[in-house]
Structure prediction request, 718 residues.
Amino acid sequence: MKSLRGRLTVWLLAGTGLLLVAGGLTLDRVISSRLRREYDAALVARARSLGTLTEQGNGKVWLESVDGGTPEFGSKENPDYFEIWRSGGAMVQRSSSLGTRDLPRSAHAAAAPLLSDLTLPDGRRGRLVEISFRPRSELEEDEERENAPAPARDPSADNLTVTLAVAHGRADLDAFLTSVHVTLLLVVVGLLAGTAALVKAAVGVGLAPLDSLAARLEGMGTESLGERLAAADAPLELVPMIRHLNGLLARLQESFARERAFSANLAHELRTPLAELRAVTDVALKWPEDSSSWLASLEEVRAIGLQMETVVANLLALANWEAREPALRTSEVPLRELVAGCWTAAAREAEEKEMTLQVEVPEELAIVADREKLALILSNLFSNAVAYGSPGGPVTCSAAAAAGGFELSVRNSTALLSPEDVPRIFDRFWRKDPARSGNGHTGLGLALVAALCESLELEKEARLDGDRFEITLRGRLHRPFINTPLASKSSSG
Amino acid sequence: MRLLLIEDSARLRTTLERGLRRAGYAVDAATDGREGLWLATENEYDVIVLDLMLPEIDGLTVLRTLRNEGKTTHVLVLSARDLVEDRVQGLRQGADDYMVKPFSFDELCARLEALVRRSYQAKNPVIQTGDLEINTVARRAWYAGEEIKLTPREYGILEILVLRAGEVVSRRDLWEHLYAFDFEAASNVVDVLVYSLRKKLDAGDPQRVVKTRRGLGYVIDGGAP
Prediction:
């Protein structure tokens, strides 16, 4: 499993580690190089000073003093070495520390110092510098000393070139360089360890809000769907996520509430008739001698069966329409005629409640749709309007062609609804009355309307304006059949 | 025993009313929470059968209001809500029992009998006092080992007197336990029933078992057999 903490830690550690190692190596290289240069410069200076002690005259070359007057060249322990050759390769002089041995000599000695590593005659590691130069002649020295012109001599006789090689043990340099390497290594390792601790702490502090968010979410269950995540103290990066999660929680809570309401309502719709059935039969069977009540009980049982049949049929129809793509049998449907036909089923109840139908549908308006399903929609809308509309009030059905489609509305006045009921009006089994007292309706009518609208690709909208409740359907007219302008409106009772 | 049934389903209400009356209860029925609350507040019932999803005032509010007003009448909740939290909530609001619909009528009767017995601190359905013994489940009575054939109302009178043995029970109390709120009976119906009961218990000495306390009511002496 990919861990944000792990990835951050690895990347930060690897990054800072690489930087530290690269920095350490660079520093080591710079210091070592500087130290070597200074060491070599000192060696060259030493060779040059030895060179100043070299003189020539009359075709000879010599050193002014034995071992250049420097005890290191004659020391028995860890001595330094030098050797002077003529340009032809003949040895002129060597330090007493060399004895009869020679220092290595390069074939192409030049005026510029030539530096190299070597193994000293006593076996130590050492550094060698070779320089070629023309030793000062004795004559020049006398001139300088007495500030007088020298006697005439053959100038070519004092023009010899020699090569001077000076070797010095480099144990102290190596020891110092090693101590520099070790120190830098320790510093880098220490810094790496410190960085690791710092990275761990920084990642911990940085991801703490995420951890707390994760813990909060982990602790949430169906019972805490009403709670919301606090965005006030959250880091800026988490605020959009928290806002989004809160939105999801709200939708989930609403969904759960609807599901619970559905389950509870379904339980009620099924349990109540079952309880009635059980009670009627139990009571009839408890006193079987009372044959006079049998007929009444049987009638009760039949009525309950029919009621349950309606609920189950509606549920099955809903399930069918929601589960699969319905086969549509489209035909040209004159809306005004359809409205009149669908009202018939609700007319009897409407008459009892002294409600009338107002039709505001143009005579010529026809659409292409599945007539049977459209009729079911209208029947359910009328049934709903009559059942829950205010007694004595009209039920108005209006239709008109709209841009590229049509609009069909059924409205009635009602004192039963409040604005917060409107979003739930198409929920399965939703009824305003929490007691769900029987009035022959199960709360599935508008859910069926919603499912049918879905299958007919109709857009539905419920609106409550004061006490006026209206359900509007909008659909596309694949082949509009509007023969005349929609000016004429008529009504019937 | 007097029982109040608060149920909005007309079919269930009438069926239960009929069945419970035949089972010996004096039944008052209410169709919504408001009417039920009013009846429960204004009258004394041995037990109330209460639906939860009621129009006007829901069942839980009815129950809470009754308990807040100090009414200790035993309440059996009869509801389609079957979730554990529904039952817990019902019982915590003061219900004495909870039954989920659909239910067995026999079980309902048995639970109601248990609640009635609990009202009178009697756990055993067979109750004895002196030579008298009644079975509150079978609704039968024996005197000195002999079964006495009683009508449902005679048994009702005897049951309340036995359950409250040693205590004077007023005529009004007896009447209220026998008849529903809206039942119009003759004013001396209790005296007539007691007379008839005495004749069946001990015709030779009518005052031997059911004694009259003039101006107060009737009493059966308590005591072990």
Q: What stands out?
A: Residues 2-119 of chain B form a domain with the Rossmann fold fold (CATH 3.40.50.2300). The interface with chain A takes residues 8-12, 15-16, 18-19, 22, 32, 53-55, 58, 80-83, 100-106 of chain B (CB under 8 Å).
